[in-house]
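Objective 1b of the project was to move from sequence-level analysis to a structural picture of ligand recognition. The entry below was assembled by the postdoctoral researcher (A.K.) and checked by the PI before modelling. It contains the amino acid sequence of the target and the SMILES of the bound compound, flavin mononucleotide.
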Amino acid sequence: MSGWPDTRFAALVGSAHPIVQAPMAGAGGVDLCSGAVAGGALGSLPCAMLGPDEVCAQAEQVRARAAGPINLNFFCHEAPGSADDGAWRTLLAPYYAEFAVEAAPEGRARRPFDEAMCEAVEAARPEAASFHFGLPSEALLARVKAAGAVVIGNATTVDEAVWLAERGADAVVAQGFEAGGHIGRFLGSDPAEAMGLFALLPQVADAVDVPVIAAGGIADGRGIVAALTLGASAVQLGTAYLHGPESEISAVHRAALGGEPTRFTNLMTGGLARGVAGRLMRELGAIRAEAPPFPLAAAALAPVRAAAEARGEFGFGPMWAGQAAPLGRALPAAELTRVLADQALAILRREA
Ligand SMILES: Cc1cc2nc3c(=O)[nH]c(=O)nc-3n(C[C@H](O)[C@H](O)[C@H](O)COP(=O)(O)O)c2cc1C
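Corresponding predicted holo structure:
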């Protein structure tokens, strides 16, 4: 761990480097996490779309393949009851007709953290547990901590960072709007307020005493050193890990990482998230008022997506990616982690 200017976060979770491989639901699992752990990062398993048994099984598989700390990641959104998604289904009707599928009954693929998931954490005993869209209830959070996990919350504003630290987060991610995937906004909801990392990070670092993890648009050693300079104790990279062989993305998605512009859309889940455009975004526009709240939009879209993907068309599902995607290199996760650390440490040595 020597050579890093701030070892607070790495010491807290026990990683060699202050680098977190970001959890990426639907895009990375056991292979990606094990590789990142082997390279010296805190590896993450995205659990929002898994059942409790799968969480335990995947954690065990990583433990068998790599020695080092792991992070289990969950969503804490308030599950909307049964929002009226009639307007959304009407908007999708031409696609139901084209792909000859029926509108599906409501389903909920992305589950908020609950009692059953808390039991999975107690069984798996990860070094860290990270939460998107807020934190679990006080009682569940106390159990996560009692299981030995460092609790990480995700903030997109200074207010959210303070809220998380006051409620017991041991570290806070400052997520800038450059980031791929869902922007984890949970206090307030005006998308026009989304902040870039260069403005957000130093304000968060000034506002909270816990270590801050910078996320959004970091893809190489320069970005890591810039984040450390702005007050981060660690960095979290998602998109950079998508280029490598362990990510579970389509060939279309992979090719788009080379230079397609990214934008915020609410079409895939109802929540605001950054990704590259496919056919649905091009034909409907990236943001539609008809989309029901997160995560309900995904249910009505699911049959169209499945039929399209069976035909080799990938524009009806998320192709999440952040703004720094073109800076990425197609390296295995262990090697990428080591290269990132070496690049950053070389810059830090020159500056010393
Ligand atoms: C494909 C993809 C899926 C993601 N899924 C999740 C997730 O399941 N949970 C989560 O907390 N963050 C998720 N994120 C956001 C990341 O945790 C992180 O904030 C982001 O990747 C950092 O920005 P970068 O992509 O520019 O590196 C996802 C990001 C991507 C690119």
